[in-house]
Write a structure and sequence with these properties.
This protein has 22 helices and 4 strands. With 512 residues, it is mainly α. The N and C termini lie close together (10 Å).
């Protein structure tokens, strides 16, 4: 373990994060100069954050500047784990400082305390999309932009961006990328890991530009297009409206966002294959086909369950759903939940038991490995099914030795164990989160469905759950202690449990 290596790189990461905030501050300054007086306080908050983050970042870099070692494995784990918490600490400052500069009375402040601000920042960076805000539309536009940008930065990972723009990391960059990249198979698309990070970010940027243009063409303003694109491609879910996407009351906007949510849940390595003209390898990819299969089956089940029933949109409109409306709202919610984007157009908490149960199941599935989606990843469910099938076969054919495969790839013993441990870990953390929330909120008469789905939604980076954390609700009513629990769950889910859990292992710190 080389603490100075971690400190140096954390300092550089803070400088990069402050640079992103500076971009938002520049846009806020332009809006203020054009006559938007609501931006004055937000601009002051953003600039103060840039100053604080930049100064602390430079101090950390100065302290660790003499550390010339490459990033080792333990250093990479510690750096990736701490980077999300440190970045969220800086990302929360604009939310906390803005009411002060705006001279808001305490009882009118959207963010009651720093824990609320930290929750919002962590939810943004981990692309969870859960919010403590009761009036989203009360924020200045620059803070809306910053909320959405935290999604976009966290989508492929701030550490992957770090590797892409800082070649000085050398071999340590490969370790950082493999610890950070989502899913059990974070293989590069090019031989050099820094080039891989750059390629993935260029693909991400290209999809971003395309969606911004398409959303503008179907009726959104440039500002709304940018904010919703950042949230869509990062599978985040922050919207500029209290009613989320339903507030636009547009079938065209719903369809465009559905398409790009599906695209965001695909392994980004497959886009590289498409660019190279290898479309057959994409079509034959088993995880991709299984991912589409989950979406299709979930959509059919939900649509069939809500057709000819009343649907309440998140803007309060009640619709007697024919087949068209059932498809529009049902498919949107299935895609939003499985890809862990978390946008809402309908209050699915009011749906019958079967579609609600299906939605909870899809929360665990998530997107593909190597996508911006959260959840447990489709490939793990495929491996778990194969492992279970092989073990059942051994019961009646104990002498048969048959390798477990996904396509042509053999699942070795180490991967089998890692997959099953991950399933157990998610189950334990989900129940532990539920129990802690019920204990911490016992004075508020919290119900088990709220506690369970709040735990599922934050651990799997979904956003909305059911009951008191449903599509039309928020997380602001929880105590600070409960928000702290969910902040940890969001980070655990984004880094796929082990990267943070290993920090509690004493031998990790002893180095033996």
């Amino acid at each position: 373990m080389r603490p100075l290596v971690v400190i140096r790189n954390l300092g550089l990461l803070l400088v990069v994060t402050s640079g992103a905030i500076l971009v938002v501050a520049a846009w806020s300054c332009l809006q203020w100069l054009l006559g938007d007086e609501t931006e004055k306080a937000a601009l002051q908050a953003l600039m103060m954050t840039v100053a604080c983050g930049g100064i602390v970042g430079m101090l950390l870099w100065f302290v660790g500047r003499r550390a010339r070692h490459a990033v080792g494995r333990r250093d990479a784990i510690l750096l990736v784990a701490t980077s999300w918490f440190v970045a969220a600490a800086v990302g929360a400052l604009p939310y906390r400082l803005w009411p002060t500069f705006a001279e808001m009375p305490p009882d009118t402040t959207p963010f009651a305390n720093y824990v609320d601000c930290y929750f919002e920042a962590m939810s943004g960076l981990t692309t969870t999309g859960a919010t403590v805000l009761t009036s989203i539309e009360s924020l200045p536009r620059s803070l809306h932009l910053w909320r959405s940008l935290t999604h976009w930065l966290g989508g492929l990972g701030i550490v992957v961006l770090f590797v892409a723009v800082l070649p000085m990391l050398g071999v340590g960059g490969k370790r950082l990328f493999r610890v950070e990249a989502p899913g059990p198979t974070p293989d590069g698309v090019t031989p050099r890991i820094q080039e891989t990070a750059r390629v993935l970010w260029l693909i991400y940027l290209g999809l971003t530009v395309i969606e911004i243009i398409v959303l503008k063409l179907v009726g959104l303003t440039w500002f709304e297009s940018v904010c919703h694109t950042f949230a869509t491609l990062a599978t985040g879910g922050f919207s500029t409206l209290n009613a989320s996407v339903a507030g636009y009351q547009s079938v065209a906007i719903d369809v465009v966002i559905i398409i790009f949510m599906v695209a965001a849940g695909v392994n980004f390595g497959l886009y590289f294959q498409l660019i190279k003209g290898r479309w057959r390898s994409v079509v034959k990819d088993r995880e991709f086909r299984c991912y589409i299969g989950f979406l299709t089956i979930g959509s059919i089940l939900v649509v069939a369950s809500i057709v000819n029933r009343p649907i309440v949109a998140t803007d309060g409109t009640e619709i007697q759903a024919g087949i068209g409306d059932a498809m529009r709202y049902g498919i949107f919610q299935v895609v939003a939940v499985q890809t862990t984007t978390g946008f809402c157009t309908a209050d699915f908490d009011l749906w019958p038991f079967l579609p609600k149960f299906a939605m909870i199941c899809l929360m665990f599935v998530g997107g593909s490995a190597g996508s911006t989606g959260g959840g447990m990843k489709v490939i793990r469910f495929m491996m778990a099914f194969k492992i279970l099938w092989a073990e059942l076969e051994r019961v009646f054919q104990p002498n048969v030795v048959r390798p477990v495969r996904i396509g042509t790839a053999v699942i070795d013993t180490e991967m089998k164990l890692a997959t099953m441990v991950y399933f157990v870990g998610i189950a334990v953390l989900t129940l532990l989160g539920m129990v802690l929330l019920m204990l911490l909120e016992s004075g508020k008469d919290i119900d088990s469905i709220t506690a369970l789905t709040a735990s599922i939604a934050t651990l799997n980076n979904i956003g909305p759950g059911l009951a008191k954390v449903g599509a039309t609700c928020n997380f602001g009513w929880f105590t600070s202690a409960s928000k702290g629990v969910m902040i940890v769950l969001m980070a655990l889910g984004r880094l796929e449990v082990m990267t943070i859990a290993v920090l509690f292992f004493p031998r990790f710190w002893r180095g033996d």
